[in-house]
Amino acid sequence: MSLLDLASKRHSPRAFDGSALTWEDLANGFEAARLSSSSYNNQPWRFVVALRGEEGFDALLNTAVDANHTWMKDAGAIVGVMSSTVLEKTGETDHAALLGVGMAVGAMELAFTEAGLASMQAGGFDRAAFRALLDLPDHLLPVSLLAVGRLPEGHVPGAKTRKSLSDIAFRVGDDIR
Ligand SMILES: Cc1cc2nc3c(=O)[nH]c(=O)nc-3n(C[C@H](O)[C@H](O)[C@H](O)COP(=O)(O)O)c2cc1C
């Protein structure tokens, strides 16, 4: 499948079939994230993985806000996404860290799509509870919960609502909004 086909197919399903996933199911997604580029090659992404059936699954799930808990409970795995805010080479702030993490997660989601899985990010979760659960050091920022799983039978993806190209790509001198 071409990259554009994968990007069109990937969607946020808000529904999973409740089956469990294994590390092997997730392997290509993590490899795609690992190979992603980042400022100073700092590789700011950190992931905590809980497979369905593991104790950590409910612990991560319970940090989700109610509206996300409703569909996330049927995921096959939940990946907690974090960002390191420190440039390892200098000890200074990595101002591009979130962009790097986003690129890694984007690659991961396309690899999951290619593997026939569905995934969905959720920024709606209790960051303080997540931090406390994992006893995170200060330089690690909770970013999102990424639910991964298989789609329920008969699932129909919703239509993609997007801005047009002219709303997002400009020339110098344009009235950029
Ligand atoms: C970083 C991030 C956080 C998101 N957080 C939530 C969320 O908390 N709850 C939710 O229902 N959807 C969440 N979404 C899903 C978006 O609403 C969805 O990606 C967007 O509507 C586009 O739809 P699509 O992913 O199906 O193409 C999030 C997406 C991203 C990338």
**Which strand order do you get reading across the main beta sheet?**
1-2-4-3
What general outline do the C-alpha atoms trace?
globular
**Beta fraction of the residues?**
15-25%
The residue fraction in helices comes out at: 25-40%
SSE string, helix = H, strand = E?
HHEHHEHEHEH
Mean pLDDT: 97
Computed structural class: alpha+beta
Tally of helical runs: 7
Bound compounds, each kind once, are: flavin mononucleotide
The CATH topology corresponds to NADH Oxidase
The termini sit apart by 34 Å
How many DSSP-defined strands? 4
**CATH level-4 homologous superfamily:** NADH Oxidase
- Quick one: CATH class? Alpha Beta
Number of domains: 1
- Please tell me how large the radius of gyration is: 17 Å
Main sheet specs: 4 strands, antiparallel
User: What CATH architecture label applies?
Assistant: 3-Layer(aba) Sandwich
Q: Please give the oligomerization state of what you see.
A: single chain
Put the structure in a nutshell.
The chain has 177 residues and is of the alpha+beta class. It has helices spanning 3-9, 23-34, 55-61, 66-72, 97-114, 127-134, 165-168, and strands at 45-51, 77-84, 118-122, 140-149. The longest helix is centred in the middle third of the chain and has 18 residues, at 97-114.
SSE blueprint and pairings:
Elements: H1 3-9, H2 23-34, E1 45-51, H3 55-61, H4 66-72, E2 77-84, H5 97-114, E3 118-122, H6 127-134, E4 140-149, H7 165-168
Antiparallel strand pairs: 1-2, 2-4, 3-4
Helix pairs in contact: 1-5, 2-5
Bound molecules: flavin mononucleotide (FMN).
Flavin mononucleotide (FMN) binds next to strand 3.
